[in-house]
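Summary for the steering committee. The consortium agreed at its last meeting that each partner would contribute one worked example illustrating the joint modelling workflow. Our contribution is presented below. We chose a case with several input lines so that the handling of multiple components could be demonstrated. No manual editing was applied between input and output; the record is shown as generated.
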Amino acid sequence: MTTRREQLEIDEALFPLSFLRLLSLVPAAVRRMHAGVADGRRAMRGEGGRYLFRGHREYRPGDDLRRVDWNVEARHDRLVVRQFDAEKDVLTEVWFDASASMAPFGGRRAMVQAAALACATGLGEGGRIRLGCFHQGEVQGLLQASEPGQMRQVLHWLSVHAPSGRADLASALPRLVRRVPRGARFVLVSDLLSRADPGVLHTLAGRNVRGAILHLRVPQVTAPAPQRAYLARDVETGEERRIRVDAACAARIAARAKAHADLWAHHAHLVGLVYLPFGPAMTAEALLRRIILEVP
Amino acid sequence: MSLAAPWALLGLLALPVIWWIQRHRRKAAVVELPTLMFLLEEDERVHQPRKRGLDLETVLALTAAALLALAAAGPAIERGAPITRVRVVVAGGGPAHAAGYVDRARGVIDAIRGAGAEVDVVWLPAQEPATRFDARPDVDALLGAARAGAASVRVIVADRLPDDAPGDVRWVGIGDTGAVNLGIVGARIVGPGDAPALFLTLARDPAPAAPLSTTLSVDGQSTPVEIDTQGYGVARVPLPEGVGQRRWTVRLGSGPDALAADDEVVLELVPLGVTLDPALSPGVRAALERALDAVVGREARVDDAALRIGPGRAPDVELGVGSLAADGAATTAPRGTPLRQPDPLVADLDPAGVTWIYAAGDEVVEDGERVLLGIRADDRTWPIVTRRADGRVRFAPDPSRGDPPPAAAPLWPLFIENWITSRGRFGVTPRGLLDPDVSRLGRADAPFDPDWVSAAAPTVPAPRVPLRTPLLAIALLVLGVLWAVPLVRRRVAVPAP
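What follows is the complete predicted structure of the assembly.
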C-alpha cells in the first residue's frame, strides 16, 4: 500500500536531511522564542474556544477578580489568577517567486528553503498557511495547510514547481495583494528583480496585513566580483550583453543593487512589512531565526 | 626542407580548415544571470562572434598544425657553413721567374680565399718556384692537374691563356702586360778558325720601339750591343784560342728586365755539324753553307755531322731539344726523336714533302727580301731567313704557330737557330737559349671573379641537423596546452557562487 506520504516526492537537493531536521524543530523554536510575547500577538495550538488557558500567575492588584482561581486559593492558600490566550485564526500567506531568475547561483534552493521556513513557522505557531506562487504576472495558489504534518506537501509543491518564465511583478503583485485576506500574515519570497514600481506594495495598506518580504539577493547579481569579459544572458528574457566587470564596474553594479533593495525595503516598511534580505550563503538556521523573531 | 611534401601540403591546407572550425566553435563564456538590470547602464559590446579575433585555442590549434606541417616537410638547419673548395693550379716553370709573377699568383690565391673558399694550391711543376730553365707547362698538363681532386671550382693561374679554354676550368691571367724582357741571349762560337769569336744573338720580347743599346759581358769583358727595332741583334766577341775546351759565361747588360733568367748563358762549346746531301747541286750546297753561316756562323761544320739537308726528303736524323743547364753546371744530352714524329715547329707540314731550299741571289724574293733559307712544300715557300736590302739578315716568323703570333715575335730566328742545332748531335748543347716557350713572356691579364665561388655548388655541404623531432615535440606540447586551456578556463571564467 502506497501511502500519501510516500507519493509526495521531495527534492533532496533542495531539502536535504539536515534541513528537514530543522523543520521538525520549528514549532518548538517558535514556542521558545515567543515565550513572553504579549497576548494576542501569537496563537498557540489548542482546542479552540474563546479563551485558551495558558497558566497561573500571582495576583496583582487590579486584576480581574473573576480570573482568580479560587480552588488554588482554597487548597494552597495562594491567590493566583488564571491566564488565557485569545484564540485567533492566524493565516500566513506565503507567496514565492516562480520566475526563472530565482534559479541561478543556488537561488532556487535558498528561495524554496525560505518559503518552507515561512510555512513551517506559520504552522508551528498554530496557524494556517497558504502557499502560492507567481510568475508571468499570474498568481497561483498551491495549497492550504493547517497542520505541521502537512509540511511534506509544502515541500513537495516547492520541489516540483520549477522556476520558469518571467515574474512580471508589476502585474502579479496587484493580483496577489487582492488575494491576501485582511489581517493575514503576508510573506513574499522573491528576488524582486523587476522594474516594477515598489509602490505597488501600498495596495496592502489599510488591510491590516503584516508580514515580510524575503528578498533573495544573489551576490553574482548584486555584488559581482571583478572578472574578465563574459557574455551575460538574462535567464528570463534571453537578452545577452558582453561585459567585462572591473572594480569600478562592480562597485557601480553593487550601488545600483543596493539602491534597488533599499527602495523595496522602504516601501515595505511603509506598509508594515519587514524587509528581510537573504542569500544562498545564508544558513537555514539563521534565516529561521530572523523569520521567527522579525516577521510579525 | 620542402613544403611540397604531401604531408606538409596537407598540413598547410589544414590551417584554414582549423581556423574555420574554430571560428564556428568558439563562443564567449556565457554566464546566465537572473537579470541584466544592473548591467544595462554599463558599457556593452554586442556579442558578435564573427567579428572576434583569434582566440587562444585557435592560435594554439593553428600553431600545432603548422608545426606538424613543418615537421612533415622534414626541415633541417645547417650547422656551420658549406665548404667550397677551389683547386688552383699555378703555372710555374720558367715563367714563374718573371718579376712579380709569384706575388701575383699568391694575390689570386688570397683573393680566392677571400671569397670564402678553401683553396688547394698546386704548382706545376711542383717546385716552387720551379727551376728557372724549366719549360712552361703545357695546357694539357695544367688541365689535368686542375681537374684532379674534389673541388667546386678549378682555376689555372698562368701568364698565358689558351685560345680554346675548356669551360670546366677557369683561367686567371697574371701576365704582366707592361713587362719588358730586356733581352734573350743566344750564343755560339765562331771559329776556332782564323779568328775565334763568340757569336751572340740577342733578342728582345717584345721588340723595342727604338733601338736598344745594352752591354754584353763575357767573362768580365764588356761589349756594347744594339738591339734594333726588330728586337734582334748580333755581336761578335773575339775570343782567344782554345775556346772549345772551356766554358764561357755571357750576361746581358743591366736594366729593367722582367725575365732575367734568359739573360745569362753558359757555353760549353761543341761545333755544329751539318751534312748537306751530296745530291744537292753545288750551287745549292754553297747557298746552304752560306745560310748556315748566316744563321749560326762558322760554328756550323758542313759534312761534319749527321744533320742532313737535302731535297725530297726530310733529314734522317733524330730530333732533340737541348736542355739548358742551370748555371752551366751540367748539360743534358738531347733526347732523340725521329723527325717524322709530330714536331711543334712543323706540325702543319709534311716532313716527307718538305724541300729545303736555298734561294741564292735573286732567285726567291719575299716582300722585297731575298730568301736565304726557307721551306717549300706544296709549291709554297715559307721564308725562314731572308736578307734585307741593307744587308742585314732577317728571320721570318713562324708560319704555323706561336703565341703571341710569331710575326711579332723576334724570338723566332733564335728558335730556328736552336732548332737547327737540335736536329742532331751536333752543335753546342748549352746553347744559351731558352725554350722560346719559356722566353716569351706571357702577358695575359684575366682577373679572378669572386662570383665563380659564390655561384658554385658547395664541395662539402654544411652538416644538417634535422628538426622533425623537435617540431613534433613542440607540436605535442602545444596540443597538450590546447587540451588543457578549456579546463583551466572553465574553472576560472566564472567565480563559484
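Residues 39 and 299 of chain B are 128 Å apart (CA to CA). Chain B touches chain A at residues 27-47, 493-495, 497 (CB under 8 Å).
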